[in-house]
Amino acid sequence: MQNQKKSKITISEIMNKKKNKEKITMLTSYDYSMSRICNEANLDIVLIGDSAATVMLGYDTTRKIGMDEMLTFCKGVANGITRSLVVADMPFGSYYTGKEDSIGNAIKFLRCGCDAVKLEGGQEFIDIIKNFTSFGIPVMGHIGLKPQTTPLYHGYGSQGKTAEGAVKLISEAKALEEAGVFSIVLEKVTSEVSSIISEIIKVPIIGIGCGPHVDGQVLVIHDMLGLYKDIEPKFVKRYLDLAGKIYDAIKEYEDEVKSERFPTEEHTYHMAGEELAKLEKMLKRV
Ligand code: KIV
Fold it and tell me: Which residue of 89, 94, 222 sits with most ligand 1 atoms within 8 Å of its CB, as the best mutation to test the pocket?
């Protein structure tokens, strides 16, 4: 892999992309090896999503992942990235217990190499977000479907289907913008409302399941690489059948080991002839 040796993208560069009508590219990643590839591919933003709960740990909800687990994933990702902006998702509850606890948790993410934090929510977290930004901690907002809490009330359905719902989303986006977020993830919102929000709000709107009329796109990397065959939301495009490819490789390995076609001479180390002769003599004495 040839690294393009570009310097780290800045928050202003991300924000300017909206002004220049250049789409922002973002994917999730949870470990060092995958992050190196994202960096190599020149992605603008790599997000350590709390979706790590489901795709990496097999939990049934993102509410089950905690700070320590998230920090471990973040360290691996940050170590693999030189160019993309690294954003850490703050897990459920980690910004609920007042300004001091919340900023303490945000600082932990920056200390392990992340460049910004993301948190789910609107008006209810404005003071927390203002506090972060006043200390120079960049924040990405997240509204629309908020997987930490929305499913408890409404399931996983799309948002912004009614005029009232749309107005609520627009005012949440405005409140986040005023609080100083540098961008907003909008999840599973109708294309009409996503387009209106992208027009009204000055910071970049990064959509997942929001259609094309937003400033950037984000997907969970396991979904777009096809690592889980059983999960296929409508908004995901599968670019690869990675699960199928990994399965085939494992079966080929299994077959070659059993039939003694692996390892071959090219994978094998040898002693020098004289050392082997010496060893044989020693073994005879023993
Ligand atoms: O946790 C996550 O992966 C996310 C993305 C879906 C935006 O928040």
Answer: 89
